[in-house]
Structures are given as C-alpha cells and as structure tokens.
Write a structure and sequence with these properties.
Length: 295
C-alpha cells in the first residue's frame, strides 16, 4: 500500500466512479482499476460494490476511506510544516540583553545561520526596557529579556536564571579576604547599570535587603565599559557571571562571593502574542531556548 494508491482509492470513493477518478487524476481508467485491485488483494477484502459505471463502498471500503483521509491529511500537514521552515517573509529582528548576546547565544545563532543561510538576521543589544519598547513598536520580532514583563500584546517564555556576582579590581585588598561583610560593601565605590532598568532595580533591592546604601560613582549601560572601569580601579560592580571569563584574574578582575545570599535574574524570550510564527522564526525560538537552558 502506498500513498498514490490511497489517492486513487479516495478519488474513486468520493466520486463514486472509476471513470471520473481517472479524469480527475489524469490517469487511465484501467490504472484506477489496477490500483483498486492491488489494494483489495493486499487487504484481502472487497472495497467497492460495482453497479454498471458507478461504484459504492463496501463496509471495508468505508473504513479504509476514513483512515485514508487521515493519512493523506497528515502527509499534507507534514509537507506544509517542513516547507514553512524555509519560508520567511523578511529578516528576523532579534533583540537581546548584552550578557546573553555576547556569552550565551552565539552558538545558537551560528546553528540557525547554518540551517537557514538564506534568512537574514538583524540583531540589536540593549536593556530590557528598550527591547520591550521596540517590540511594542513592531521593530523587533523576538527579544531575550529580563523577566517579569507585563505588557499587553506580548507573551513570554521563561528561559531560566542568570547569576549576578560582585566584581572588584584584581588588586583590591578585598581579593585577599573571604566573603565580604556588609560593612566592606558599604566602603566600596560602585559602577552600576543605569537607573530605571530591571537589572539595576534587582541590584538596588539586594543592597536594600542588606541595609546598604551603595556609593554609586558611575552609571553605565555597556557591560564591556563597566568591566573596563572596574579593571582600572574606578570601582566595583555587580555583573552577570557569564560575562566573566573562567579566570577573571587574567582580565584584571576578581569575583567576590556575595554575603548571605546569591543574586539571580530570570531571563525570558518575548514574542508577539500571535498564533502564527513563520517556520524560521519558530525554529530560532527553539534554538535560543535550548542555548539559554543549557548554559
């Protein structure tokens, strides 16, 4: 039994005529008869009752038609789904917070480009608030952001947590001590993310829980610039752990254990709240989710 036989059988069954089926499928009537006979021989039962030029389904034929409809529909659905993977109406516009884009997403983006080399990716780095505004303005298709986000017209998928760590210059006296006290932290100068950003709110809440008002000497939006300022001794910072190399000392930085409790932010993928995603965009969401879940 093959798909072509099922197509021929279905046409004959729905038209009630081998002649009409042959005209519809552009094959000879004898070919229709041969396909039906082969099916009957294989199944060991009669599928049609013949009455002159017209045919009717036997009970076995009615049962086969029911299953043939499902099989042929499933085949067409599969063809459509696979075909959509290579259909993309335009470039995919992806936004991502800087730490994820630089340190956790490159492998996923490389794999996507390998699979969909004909699809153009436009990528923008930025903080969550900027990326959400761009999503609202329909200027981005997807965005890797910090959760939670409450915004109508968007939906989010949780992608796991990202640890934040205290980073100080490699020659700071605190490097020779163990876990710093709250008093140690109060004595540091800090280079932090800009106010009104989700990551800054997390850091401020963490300091508040410790009863500390940090002495903020710089506010910046660039992760690379913040690391550079810490490296030359202008202050300490709180940064995503993934932004540091396996040996921060080689970069002139030192990672210090947080007193009392670690600090995390939850990452998510923001999408437009629609039931349809082009195949390539849908596959990109899968790759991004796997990359962040496994890193």
């Amino acid at each position: 039994m093959d798909l072509h036989q099922l197509h021929v059988f279905r046409s004959a069954a729905l038209n009630g005529s081998f002649t009409t089926a042959s005209e519809e499928l552009h094959i000879s009537q004898s070919t229709v008869s041969l396909h039906v006979k082969n099916l009957e021989d294989e199944l060991g039962c009669q599928l049609f009752f013949r009455a002159g030029r017209h045919v009717g389904l036997s009970p076995a034929g009615k049962l086969l038609l029911e299953h043939a409809e499902k099989i042929l529909e499933a085949v067409q659905t599969s063809k459509t789904a696979v075909g959509e993977l290579n259909m993309q109406p335009g470039p995919i516009r992806l936004g991502a917070i800087e730490s994820a884009l630089e340190n956790r997403l490159p492998s996923a983006l490389k794999e996507f480009s390998r699979q969909f080399h004909q699809v153009k990716l436009l990528i923008m780095a930025g903080e969550t608030e900027l990326l959400i505004n761009l999503m609202k303005a329909q200027k981005l298709d997807l965005a890797v952001i910090t959760l939670p986000v409450l915004q109508s017209g968007l939906k989010t998928i949780s992608l796991g947590r990202e640890e934040l760590v205290l980073v100080i210059p490699g020659n700071d006296p605190l490097t020779r001590r163990g876990q710093p006290s709250a008093a140690d932290l109060a004595g540091l100068s800090f280079i932090l993310y800009e106010k009104q950003t989700s990551i800054r709110s997390l850091v401020d809440d963490w300091f508040r829980d410790l009863g500390i008002v940090p002495r903020v000497v710089m506010e910046m939006g660039s992760l690379a610039s913040m690391k550079a300022m810490v490296r030359i001794g202008l202050g300490a910072s709180v940064l995503p752990a993934c932004a540091l190399s396996d040996d921060p000392a080689k970069d002139g930085l030192h990672k210090v254990p947080f007193p009392e409790k670690p600090l995390y932010r939850e990452l998510g993928l923001a999408l437009h709240d629609t039931d349809y995603l082009p195949g390539a965009t849908r596959e990109l969401t899968v790759l991004l989710s796997k990359a962040l879940a496994n890193s």
